[in-house]
Amino acid sequence: MNPHSLPPFHPRRYAIERPDDVAYRISASAEAVTFGQLEARANQAAHTFRQLGLKRGDHIVILMENRREFLEICFAADRTGLYYTTASTHLTDDEIHYIIQDCRASLVLVSDALIARISGYADLLATCCPIMVIGRGEDRLPSFTEIASAAKATPIPDESQGLDMLYSSGTTGRPKGVKWALPDQPAGSSSMLIELLSGLFGYGVGTRYLCTAPLYHAAPLRHTMVTIRTGGSAVIMPKFDAEAALALIEAEGITHSQWVPTMFVRLLKLSEEARRRYSLNSMTMAVHAAAPCPVDVKHRMIEWWGPIIHEYYAGTENNGFTALTTEEWLGHIGSVGKAKLGVIHICDENGAELPIGAEGEVFFENGHQFEYHNDPEKTCASRNAQGWTTLGDIGRIDDDGYLYLTDRKSFVIISGGVNIYPQEIENLLLQHEAVLDAAVIGIPNEEFGEEVKAVVQLVDGREANEELSSELIAFCRKRLSAVKCPRTLDFRTNFPRSPTGKLLKRQIRDEYRSAQVAT
After folding, report:
1. Closest CA to 286 of 309, 311, 302, 254
2. C-alpha distances out from residue 178 to 157, 169, 175, 187, 493, Å
3. At 418, which helix (H) or strand (E)?
4. Is the model's pTM score more than 0.85?
5. For residue 107, what is the enclosing H or E element?
6. Is 154 helix (H, G, I), strand (E, B) or coil?
7. In this model, does residue 125 exceed pLDDT 80?
């Protein structure tokens, strides 16, 4: 087969041209997956999908840790016209069950390491879809891996482009399935996402991409697959570890990497000796997103890594996309960039557009169209009268068109009629040498409606006591107006976070509100 007769971003091109080159590997394993192996295994899985009766437009759910088979399954679904939903292993059993039912899955694929997460629902789910195991199966749950290994390694005759259908992390309620229309084009064709990411961040042949987070989340999965689609190679960490990430950059000659602000904080908390132990000279692009990065943290990362840090703002929905370089950020401190997809509008609570500089809800015009699967009410709530779409974030734009995020609409604290944005206070607390993590929430107050409560995790070696609590509140009062400062502060040993670093603040807020109601 002539590789140039294939669509431009089909991995089969590289399987023909460079079959022995590494497409990806899991960093904890000595086994690498070449383009030739990826092609064969994806084809075998695609044949198996067809043998199981799956057709274009059907859904599969993948419940798996970062392991070799993860991407083989995704690339198989991607050429079989399927919707593939990668479920977070940190969801509750009920949430996983909900997702399987909500997307009307035709097949559930679960890792043999995670069978216990699904076994309680095996009989129930068997009435609506089969469950198969990646790896070693059990009596009631057959091994997809074993069946696929006997299938043909050649392409299926009816390839068509599939899509991920990922669910939001559920930080503001039940997880929501983000659904795009299946493209009517051959598998491996160009797409908005491939052109956007490769154009902005330079993914392509020669890229050595470090994936630091679980593949079941949108950014790690999509950036890794775009890297491979464009001929690059990926190194995937099974679990994030700050010093191990630095060691991989040096050992693997990493050129591109992706992070979230929490990872930056962990990197900066390493000792000076540990940070200087590894050469990072190969890295030309470090991308971060997922949450607003504290200004002090970003300044320190730029001082350490230089002008290679790029930031973007987007959601699983990809209804809009902003980005900026280090140089742009230094000229617009705190910004998440200018629009690269869609047109930004800042609107009030009635959907009316606000002037430049005013804070309001962030909407995008002419962005990628999406819907929330089986939830027309939430789909409708994400749009205003003009048809612009929002993720529920609060922000403003400056005269140059750069966007600045303030916080999530659902986390704004209203105290005595004043809007208080927790992110600003959390960013400040993270500057204190004793603080490893911080969450700021609103709790009920009879007089003011809500009051500001801070919850803090300390670095190792610091003792939680009333003296330090008072010191941290005073630290805030020196730098913020009194109305924004925490009235009380609690310590805890860890925070609920998604594996990509997103703070599950709703869980903390609900804990305090439930405790207050009980009291």
Report:
1. 309
2. 29, 11, 9, 21, 33
3. strand 418-420
4. no
5. strand 107-111
6. coil
7. no
